[in-house]
Amino acid sequence: MLGLRGKIMSYKYKVKLLLYFILIIIFVAHFSLTILFVLPPNPIKTTIKLPSIYIGKYFYQDWGLFAPDPISMDISVLVKCVDNNESETPFWNITDDFNRYNNRKNRIQRVVVNYAHSYINASREEMPLLKLCNINPDHASCAQLRKAENDRREASKEGLRRVASAFCADIQHATNIEYEKAHILIELSKVPPWSKRYTESPTKSFLNLGIVALDKKPAFRIWKAEGDALATNYTT
Amino acid sequence: MPLQLITRLESKLYNQIGSRILQIGAGGVILYRCISELPAAQFIYGPEGAAIGSSITFFGDLGFWIDGLFYSYWGIFVTFLVWGLGGVGLILGLYPRLSASFALIGTLLLELRGITHDGGDNILRIILLYMIFFHPLITKKERTSIEIKPSTSIFLHNLAVTAIYLQLSILYFISSTVKLQGEMWVSGTAVYYVTQLNEFGMPTEFLKNLFKNSWITTLATYTTVIYQLFFPAILLTPSKIKLLWTIFGILLHFNFAVNMGLVTFSSMMIALLLFTVKDSEWEKIIPYVKNKIPVLTVYYDGQCSYCRRTAQLIRMLDWFGFMRVVSYHNDDSYLNYSLTFDEVDQEMHVVKKQKNHIKIYRGFDSVVVIVQYLPTLWLFLPILLILRIFGIGQKLYPWIANNRVMSLSGHLCKNENCSLINSKKDAEMSVRTLTKR
Question: Comparing C-alpha atoms, which of B17, B2, B31 is closest to residue B161?
């Protein structure tokens, strides 16, 4: 009897061992694919599509923290709300006055700034093609890059349009004026190069995203202070 | 050899203390984000807010259903609730696997929806999956070296621990190698550009100007790259080198939190760095740190239900283990400090012991010193200090102490039908006699 029991135990342990080996194989495969995914483009990565399908979709990760080159310009978003009679508010910097040590305010600011960043800067996935197309603009892959750039900008602009809708809804809540459209500008403030750090100030430039139609949104009271300030201006 | 490895992996729980710290760190970050973002949740993630993300990218066709359910007006609140419950569960060590699953679901859904996530949110999402496999025993205070039977759950715990080590090594190594492809990092000026920004830069003009200095910027740039590049190798070095590297990393991330405003990212990274400290290393660190930290013995009246509840509350809030809360009816160690039963019975006493230095606090002063060592009660500290300065606290305390409701314990107090004695005089007449002190 004991011998038989011993055999059963041994069989159970063998099954357990098999399970452990399967888990180890999954573990090794998972991390091999992770490493392949996060590495720069290389011959293996271009041959095997599995890392971008498996890791890119379910375990997406990007560890280029402030790399390859850190951000060297501040981005602000300016919005002007326009009503039915074409009268308009002044341009308002909606990314100003957000305390980065307050997580809520910091995350709100990131919503706006990240859409603007995404509108301006190429994504990490576009980088290899961007390099290629800078050298050879007639390369067949450049059409693919242009499509990716276009999609990214469209999505970012849609995000900024939704932000502008929320901002103008807050202003509307304070001023009781119904706004239909908004004019969006992105302000770029570039840090002077290292060699001119003592002689130059940040250089400013603007990117005009044009006029967008607003959604009817509830007032989230995110820009409550701005709304109140504009309401005061109107009444005075 | 592989069999030996497997036997070890299924029989010994590795990084129990580090794993628990990671649970608390991740739970803390989630709870902080949950509470702070909730008032703006509809704008950041709601159906009428600024978000345009969809779960379809992750879940495929199932995403249509998930979007409708979780990204609706009320769905956002449900997502926050699930997320917050996960965070609280991880902090308190309640249902750790379920809590990690809730935390993962919340983190994933909000990341897919919004556009605000950073590297900290990215690593949080990845490690939460591994944290589901942490052994529940790590949340018990009486964990560590007790004999446990080899099991699949221990094997999975150790696999999860290894996965987190690997993931953290990948993070640092890749981050440094990508930096080495950038001209600004190679030329030693990268930190100058970041520090001059309004978004991530130094908080004051003085500090911004400091990073215009060639030496400071070059050293800061190269130190960051070297720290990240060698991190995986340092994990394999002897404890002393590894711990120094870890302390440096914690300071580096603390600097990112204070000067760059990357609070949640830095908190996550600090929790991960503390995770990498092995149990055997904690066993060396804890006695060293304990020697530097005072131990407070709180003597309370174990026969007074109000005092018992207070003692329970102190124990619950004593997250860092500063306090030894004992009833003077059961523990007469106060005699070692030349205190008498009458003294400890008259008012609460706290004995603060640090190395060979002993200080005794009485009455209202003992209340103040307890609050000083319980961070969750720091909110009340200014009021208590004002009461002490004006002498109100010292007058108020005896009144509370003399009017505490007392009840007998033990066989004289059955089925909660205890006689209640409201004054000290009555107490002297009955309680003390009955307890035969």
Answer: B17
